[in-house]
Design a protein that fits this description.
About 30% of the residues lie in helices and about 20% in strands. The protein is an alpha/beta fold. Among the domains are: about 150 residues, Rossmann fold; about 100 residues, 2-Layer Sandwich (GMP Synthetase, Chain A, domain 3), CATH 3.30.300.30. It has an eight-stranded mixed sheet with strand order 7-6-5-3-4-8-9-19, with helices on both faces. A five-stranded mixed sheet has the order 12-13-14-15-16. It has a four-stranded mixed sheet with strand order 2-1-11-10, with helices on both faces. α3 packs across α4, α10 crosses α11 and α13 packs across α14. The chain is globular and about 65 Å long.
Length: about 600
């Protein structure tokens, strides 16, 4: 890619325009430059021209990798050429509906072959992809539909009932329902197998008037009808929902430039360790693609590098996952601590051949040293941790891929990324002192959808994004996270916000007040626990509240423990003091 002038402060010209990425001038005395030299890393990426978009990036790769497998799922595969054709069909279908550049399209499905087809189709139409967790309840889905202003949704039929139950569907006028077997019956003459027929039986009945099927959507248009939009780096490509550091979920607006920059940053790190390895290696995609870590590493970067992503619809089925690992022998295994731990404690996993394995990449949540040690003993390779957030596309920092041992640190900043640590007053902290990690780089979001005040609050006066995580920077430029500034709970790599748990649980008629915190969990990192004050005379059991939580919140957000208390600790103005609740648990 060529280098061009960088317009970092361009004013947005419409709701779907962001700004061009910021490539900061990083002081030469930053300690991580020495580590860059030691591990053969470059301090900068080749900045793409301003008129470059994701369209150019993937069109180039469709031509370059044509006959290679891009995605594999449940025994079926999708080549780059097939992905090119199918995604143009989806783009043409969306255009045929009258949707325009900048319109939002929600995608609510697990790791199945339709996901990359639809995600790329949305982006190729110049529209904005809205990733939605398919396990959301109707209440959670309704919030995201309204906040995103989505006008269309692609949803797997297993969760169509969730959409049907949404009372106010906002601006959504177009619904496309996908089936687990759609692509298995269409690719390479494969027939829908026994597993898919079994899954079909498990689909709850639903009724969504005027919806269409994924197959009919494809059959209604030709790839030749696709009209390629003119885009550049400043256009928003993705709304990735997160709670930021507090509060309800909000959409981080990530531009084409943000995502391209992060792909190039990751590529720089990988090439420093492995050289040009574009030979169609298999990359495990067990983490859900709607999660930003998997979206970038298992989706965007995998396609950029010409890998074959091995899609796992249900990673909780460890036996099934291990059979896939045995069959395809991936070179790269991105995972969170929960998955690493589950695999390394499975006897069948220990018998696998790891000779193809090049890197095990940890993200989403901290990897426990005990898990990392066991993984190294079984596979012969350390887990290499990185760090990122939805607001940063997501990669902020990384450990070099060729480290020999697990570091228990989140590594050094990515190329063209500056990091400072600040105290409560915004003062920059020296090496070895605790401070909030703040980031500036081309991967940092434009802002939060519909939330200018929260966007402004998320940045320092000199333009660094405030992560809410407390870290320490050492003399070699490596960062260790030691605490979180806010009350966010981290469950299996997913952000869970106490406010949302409290709001949902407070709807139970027996609850007067409720406070939520995270407590340590060996399997998930943290578990949500609630402290409940019952209404006078109310009778309710812990199990009843846990069951109520299942109706209100998706799995990882649900309270796992309930403690009944007479009162909750509060500030002078009546705010629940979660810090005091954590003290009761011995966590402060």
């Amino acid at each position: 890619m060529t280098t061009a002038s960088n317009h970092t402060n361009q004013t947005p010209s419409s709701e779907y325009h962001g700004t061009f990425p910021t490539y900061p001038d990083i002081p030469s005395d930053r300690p991580w430059f020495e580590s860059y030299e030691r591990y053969g890393l470059s301090a900068s990426i080749d900045k793409p021209a301003d008129d470059t978009s994701l369209l150019e990036v993937f069109e180039r790769n469709f031509a370059r990798y044509g006959n290679r497998d891009a995605y594999i799922c449940m025994g079926a595969s999708l080549t780059y050429r097939e992905l090119d054709n199918r995604s143009r069909q989806i783009a043409a279908y969306l255009q045929s509906l009258g949707l325009k550049v900048g319109d939002k399209v929600a995608v609510m499905m697990p790791n199945v072959l339709q996901y990359p087809i639809v995600a790329l189709g949305v982006i190729r139409a110049g529209m904005i992809l809205v990733n939605v967790n398919p396990l959301y309840t109707s209440r959670e889905l309704e919030h995201q539909i309204h906040d995103s202003d989505a006008q269309a949704i692609f949803i797997i039929e297993n969760f169509a009932k969730t959409f049907e139950d949404v009372k106010d569907k906002g601006k959504v006028k177009h619904v496309v329902v996908c089936s687990m077997g759609d692509m298995l019956g269409m690719i390479k003459g494969l027939v829908v197998n026994t597993m898919v027929r079994y899954v079909k039986k498990m689909v709850p009945s639903y009724s969504i008037p005027n919806s269409t099927s994924f197959k009919k959507a494809l059959e209604s248009v030709s790839a030749h009808q696709y009209k390629r939009p003119e885009l550049d780096q400043s256009y928003v490509a993705l709304l990735q929902y997160t709670g930021g550091t507090t509060g309800v979920a909000k959409g981080a607006m990530l531009t084409h430039g943000n995502l391209i920059a992060n792909m190039l940053q990751i590529d720089m790190v990988m090439r420093a360790a492995f050289g040009d390895s574009s030979n169609g290696e298999v990359l495990l995609a067990a983490l859900p693609l709607y999660h930003v870590f998997s979206f970038m590493v298992c989706g965007m970067y995998s396609m950029y590098e010409g890998c074959a992503a091995l899609l796992i619809p249900n990673p909780r089925d460890l036996d099934g996952l291990i059979k896939e690992l045995d069959k395809y022998k991936p070179a790269y295994i991105p995972a969170v601590n929960t998955l690493f731990n589950g695999l390394v404690n499975n006897e069948n996993f220990k018998t696998l051949d790891f000779s193809n394995l090049k890197a095990s990449i940890g993200g989403g949540m901290s990897v426990l040293p005990s898990v990392a040690k066991a993984w190294h003993e079984v596979t012969g390779l350390p887990i290499v941790e990185g760090y990122g957030l939805s607001e940063t596309s997501p990669v902020v920092s990384f450990n070099p891929m060729n480290i020999s041992e697990f570091t228990a640190k989140i590594g050094v900043p990515a190329p063209d990324t500056d990091i400072i640590l600040i105290d409560e007053d915004g003062k920059e902290m020296p090496i070895g002192e605790r401070g909030e990690i703040c980031v500036k780089g081309p991967q940092v979001m434009v802002g939060y959808q519909n939330r200018p005040d929260e966007t402004k609050e998320a940045f320092t006066e000199n333009g660094y994004f405030k992560t809410g995580d407390i870290g320490i920077l050492d003399e070699k430029g490596f960062i260790k996270i030691v605490d979180r500034k806010k009350d966010m709970i981290l469950v299996s790599g997913f952000n869970v916000y106490p406010n949302e748990i409290e709001e949902a649980m407070a709807q139970h008629p027996a609850i007067l007040e409720v406070g939520a915190i995270g407590i340590p969990s060996d399997s998930r990192g943290e578990d949500p626990k609630i402290f409940v004050v019952k209404k006078l005379g109310a009778k309710v059991t812990e199990q009843e509240l846990l069951d109520f939580g299942k109706k209100q919140l998706t799995g990882y957000k649900r309270p796992r423990i309930v403690e009944f208390v007479d009162e909750l600790p509060k500030s002078n103005v009546g705010k629940i003091l979660r810090k005091e609740l954590r003290k009761r648990e011995g966590l402060e």
